[in-house]
Amino acid sequence: MKPAKTALLTIDLQNDFLHPEGAYGRAGQSAEPILALPERIAPLKDALTTAGGTYISAQFTLVPGRNDEPLIADHLRKLRPFLTKGDFAPGGFGHALVDTLSPADFTIEKVAYSAFYQTRLEYILRAMKIDTLIIGGIVTNGGVASTVRDAHLRDIHTILLSDGCAAFKEDVHAATLTSLGSVTAVMTCAEATALVGGKT
What we know:
The protein is an alpha/beta fold. The chain has helices at residues 15-18, 23-26, 32-35, 37-50, 74-79, 121-127, 140-153, 170-180, 189-195, and strands spanning 6-11, 54-60, 106-110, 132-138, 157-166, 185-187. The protein has a single domain (3-195), classed as Rossmann fold (3-Layer(aba) Sandwich), CATH 3.40.50.
């Protein structure tokens, strides 16, 4: 692996998901494995960027519509009825990447599970000549899985961080890692850090 051609891509590690004052925190929707991710991923981010690699943050976005009412898909509105004006809105506190991982070299606004769907991610990867993505974030069975599979379809080599992603249920997380093992390499954050020459 060549660090200059490698990017760390995190999915949805933003305040509205992780911060106590974010949308999910206010609604009591949190899980310890999810909250632990930024501290675990930070050493890998530092090692990769120091070695010449790139850090990209993909952040879930609710586009404000008329009267700032967020454009929310019907299935998401049913799953998360607590979402309201200002949640996941570009430029807001909740939409921002968590402090532990800030800043990112590039920020991708995404409106669906995959970081590739209707975003500029693929353009950035081509422009930066990146051929390897190290992927972590939330949730394993949602945005992470969709992004890994979309990268696979584009012949982009991926490394999935087994302890750098999480779901709200551990059994779902574990089952997804097993499923994705056929399309991606899987390793821990410490193993990936060592791979790019950083301290673990």
